[in-house]
Amino acid sequence: MKILIIEDERLLADSISTLLENKGFETEVAYDGETGKEYAELGIYDLLILDVMMPKMNGYEVAKQVRQKRCTTPILMLTAKSSVEDRIYGLNSGADYYLTKPFDTRELLACINALLRRQGNQVNELTFGNTSLDLETCMLICNGKSIRLSAKEFDVMRFLLQSQNRNLTKEMILARVWGYDSNAVENHVEVYVGFLRKKLQSIGSNICIKAIRNLGYHLEVTDEC
Length: 225
Known about the structure:
The chain is 42% helix and 23% strand. It has 8 helices and 11 strands. Strand 3 (47-51), helix 3 (59-68) and strand 4 (75-79) form a beta-alpha-beta unit. The longest helix is centred in the last third of the chain and has 17 residues, at 186-202. It starts with a strand and ends with a strand.
C-alpha cells in the first residue's frame, strides 16, 4: 500500500510517514499543496492524507482538482478547522473522511484502515480474466497452475491488476514500483513486463498486457496474446 502525505508541517508530516512505514505502508511526502496535487494526479497511490492550510494551494482546492481529474483515490483530510461548516466543506470538496488536529495516532490508523477497506484494497487476492494474484504468497494462479513472482514482478502485476483496463504510463509504473528517487529507467518497466508476459503464458492465462504507444500498458482478456 502506497500513501501520499500532503502536509506543510514537516515535523508532523515526517512523523506520520515514520508511523505508517513502521506499520508496513510505503509513503511519500509533499510539503505544499501544489506539489501534492501534481503527485496525487499520477494516480499511483492507495490513499491521500491531506492537510487543509498549506502554502501555494490549500487542501480544499487540492481535493477539488484531484477529483476533477477523475482520481478516485480515497482522501483523508487533516485540519485544525473543526467546525461543522468546515467539515461539510471538506467533504464536499472531495474528502472521504475529515480528522481534526490534534488526533490520536490510533484513530489515524483506524481511519486509514477503514478507508482502504472501503475501497476494496485490503483483500487477499486480485482477479482478472481467468487469473488471480495471491497477495500473501506472490503467486499468479490460473486453472490449478501457479507461478511465483519476484518482488518487482509482483509490484508491477498488482498495479496493473488494480488499474485493469486503465492505461498506466511507464512513468507511473516507475514511480509506483521503483519510487521517485530511484535510478531506474523506462527500460526496467519493459523488461519486467516481458517477464510477466512469459509467466502469464506459462500458466495458460488469458490476460494480456497490452502496450499502447505513448499511452502505456493495460490489461485485456483475450485468447490471442
